[in-house]
Every structure is written in structure tokens, then in C-alpha cells.
Input
Amino acid sequence: MAAPKKVMVSGVQPTHKLTLGNYLGAIKNWVKLQNEYECYFFSVDLHAITSRQDPKELGENTLFALATYLAAGIDLDHATVFVQSHVMQHTQLAWVLNCFCYMGELGRMTQFKDKSSRAGETIPVGLFTYPALMAADILLYQTELVPVGADQKQHLELTRDIAIRMNNLYGSIFKVPEPYIAKVGARIMDLQSPENKMSKSISTEMGAVFLSDSPKDIEKKFKRAVTDSGTEISYSEEKPGIKNLIDIQSAITGRTADEIVSSYQGKLYGHLKVDTAHIVIQELQSLQQSTQQFLSDKGELQRMLRSGADKAAIKAAATLKNVYQAIGFIPY
Output
């Protein structure tokens, strides 16, 4: 009898528009992982409202994100896909975990420090407490593996601390998740500030390639991408702009950085920029077409999402029931 698959959880915020970084750094990898693990992929709309959102845009961006998951190749027979706010147990467990977090722990979160510094005097409480919701997202499904980037390691460590703390108090009510580090990962950087990660919320329009961009816009952005001094195309930390373009090509084509560099001997930065643009355009063409097909029948898309939420809620409810019982809540 085959061993049960390990549980993996991941999601992307539906704020602004999804970028090439979201696709190459996360979604494209999910397609491979769904066959190896019991995967739960969702759009984290509850996290999105830690900053003010236009209601219409939030709804559209949420559906676009989930349509993109499916267009990229996420198979509903192999993975559970849903909207975070459709599974009520996320917020129910988050409140419990809030009561087992410490102010000092939440105050040390780097993302809270960064985002609150930009919020001025009107810092939403949710911006401070959202790591507890993130912990609930993970612990609800008895998750064993979480794909993490450098900017999320701190949150996973807090999740582990909360799980261990509550297990020590009440017995083994949670599995303690481990970080999943992809064998081949793609960290896509801003085209205008290649020392920074490509971001939906921070990058400028010219710094981020959005999955909804036209071929003309994509080519323009790559042609204007910041490169580096000198003329030699090489792969090194000293040339972050060139390194980023090579990383993008590698993530899409599967070629190694050395192979890509070798193919540009005697060529100029302009060749690399134009070639990278065309590779990205080709990669996104079928993704964009398939995404629009899913969005063309929103009724069917929402039916699939309700089905995913119902499936997720079964596992989430079992965890929440055990937690409620352990901490002393009487059965409903």
C-alpha cells in the first residue's frame, strides 16, 4: 500500500495583478508539485484587505488569479483550489492562534515593520496580526511542507513556534510544518531595480511584467530593463540586471545559466533583452488564452471554486474541531 502523500499548502494574494515573478516563482512550480503531494492552492483574499482594496478590483483579481492557476495546469483531480474567504475555518482558527501569539513575536515581523512604516499613523490592526491568519492557513490542513521564499521564512518560523507551543500545552493537535525548498527555484527581480524582487504592489509599471500584459508591453519593458556597466554577458551577483534576465530565460527554457551565457558570446545586452522578451511572450501566450477561457464562463469557474472550498472545509473542520475540544470549548 502506497504511503499517504505529504500535505503542501500555498497561495498568492489577489492584490493588484499577478506578475511574471508570481508565475515563475510559484504557480509554474505548483504544476509539478501537485502530482507528488496533497496540495491545497488558494487565493488569499483575506490577507489582501490588510490594505484598502477596491471591492470590484479585488473580486476580479481573485477570479483572475484562480483562473491563472487552472490555466497553468493545476488539475482539480490532483489539487484542491479555492478562495480563502470561502472556508470559514481560516478566520475561526486565526482567532484562536491570536490568543497564543505574543506581541513581541508579531512586532518583530519584518514585513510588518516595512508595511507599517509606509502606512503612517493609520496602521490596520490586521497588518499586525495577519501572521496568525497565515499560521491558520497552514495548520488547518495538517500541512507538512510549505514552499517559502526568503521573505516568508520568518512567518513559517512563527507558525512552527505556535504549533509547538500549543502541542506542548494540549497534545499533538498540529503537525509542525517544514519549509519546502525547490530543487530549482526562480526568484524573479524587478526589471528597473534588479536588486529587489518583482512585486505586484511595490514595483513600478515598467519594473514588473504582468501576466495580463500585451506582447508589445512585454517587449517594451524588457528593452528598457536596467542592465549593468560593461558589455560582457556573464552570470554573477555583480551584474544583477543581466543575472535576472538569464534567470528568467532559465526558468522558462530549462537551460542552465552557463548554457545561456555561452550562447551569447560576442553578443550585446540588447540581444539578451530582446530574446528574453520573446521567450516570455511565447511562454505567456497560451497561458493568457487559457486564462481568458476560464474567465469567459465565470459561473462554471465559481462552481469549481465552491467545490474546492467544500473539499477543503472537510479537512479544515476536522482540525478546528480537535483544537476547540483541546482548549475546552464545549461541542456545538
User: Anything to note?
Assistant: The longest strand covers residues 7-12.
